[in-house]
């Protein structure tokens, strides 16, 4: 299970891992988009998924004009203790679109898949994200098999972004993972990022992550305060 090897909305997820990307309006026509990133550390909900090693991550999303979409996102992983998992694939189906002039909604089912794992790590999560004016969002994820633990968990995240100019912006999130006490103590984590959009479609991101002591107990050596640097692109 994740806390013992370690996730993601993983990824994505994860979004694509998060926790979670701001909701996007429905497109006027069907559209295929993608993302790619090279990061110094794959951090999911405050915990490293690669033992603080770099990760290569790629995602694809097909969105219909109705707002319905399907996506896949992948990354290398290396959990502690080692359980054979070397790759993570996050599969999602959902709907995203405007629900009012300033409001957007993204609702989707997410599947975390670890094809090379020696133990059963796969699990599902229902997710909902609401965005206001494209700069503020709240996201909720719920699973009855959190991190393949056969226990329930609810993840709640608040986020905001602020553009400093055409090239620079700051983003911040704070989240609470409410876990079944039979599995682990609930924990809180946050992140603060500075993003430089130096040349379309490329961006550089520097992120400072921090967690409370409950996260450090759940993910020994993989949670706490840590920095992450990423080169990312959308196409």
Features:
two-stranded antiparallel ribbon; Porin; mainly beta; twelve-stranded antiparallel beta barrel; 235 residues
What does the model show?
The chain has helices at residues 2-5, 213-218; strands at residues 31-39, 43-44, 47-48, 55-63, 68-76, 87-100, 103-113, 123-132, 136-143, 153-163, 168-179, 187-199, 202-211, 226-234. With 235 residues, the protein is mainly beta. The chain has one domain: Beta Barrel (Porin). It has a twelve-stranded antiparallel barrel with strand order 1-4-5-6-7-8-9-10-11-12-13-14. The protein has a two-stranded antiparallel sheet with strand order 2-3. The longest helix is centred in the last third of the chain and has 6 residues, at 213-218.
Q: Helices and strands, in N-to-C order? A: HEEEEEEEEEEEEEHE
Overall radius of gyration: 17 Å
What is the count of distinct domains?
Answer: 1
- The number of helical runs is 2
- The low-confidence parts are 1-27
Binned strand content: over 45%
What would the average pLDDT be, to the nearest integer? 90
Backbone shape? globular
End-to-end separation in angstroms reads 33 Å
CATH C-level name: Mainly Beta
CATH superfamily: monomeric porin ompg
Task: Determine the fraction of residues in helical runs and give it as a percent range.
Answer: under 10%
Main sheet attributes: strand count, strand direction, barrel closure: 12 strands, antiparallel, barrel
Q: Which CATH architecture would you pick?
A: Beta Barrel
The neighbouring-strand order within the major sheet is: 1-4-5-6-7-8-9-10-11-12-13-14
Number of β-strand runs: 14
CATH topology category name: Porin
Structural class: mainly beta
